[in-house]
Amino acid sequence: MNRMYVCSCFGVTEQQVQQHAENGARTPRQIASACKAGTDCGSCVRRIQALLGRGACPRHTPSGPGEPVLAELVGRQGPQARGLDEAA
Ligand code: FES
């Protein structure tokens, strides 16, 4: 049997977390109440969140190629642009 430990502090496996989730645990706190996972060093909490489907963070995808923020200022020859040229 292949055991993937989620919480090494308490020896809690992925399968056990999933079983607690099937039994109604919806949050890492509820998993902790069921088996103590996440209540010592806390390094497993994110993994537990991921197993519960609450840790997933949608990747940021740009809406399009966009324009450089200062694109409209390029080539602008207003007083501020001239002032910057003179200061340089
Ligand atoms: S690994 Fe789970 S509390 Fe430390």
From TrEMBL:
Keywords: 2Fe-2S, Electron transport, Iron, Iron-sulfur, Metal-binding, Transport. GO terms for molecular function: 2 iron, 2 sulfur cluster binding; metal ion binding. Residues 5-53 form the BFD-like [2Fe-2S]-binding domain. It comes from the Bacteria. Pfam families: Fer2_BFD. InterPro entries: BFD-associated_ferredoxin, BFD-like_2Fe2S-bd_dom, BFD-like_2Fe2S-bd_dom_sf. Residues 59-88 are annotated as: Disordered. Belongs to the Bfd family. This is Bacterioferritin-associated ferredoxin. The lineage of its organism: Bacteria, Bacillati, Actinomycetota, Actinomycetes, Kitasatosporales.
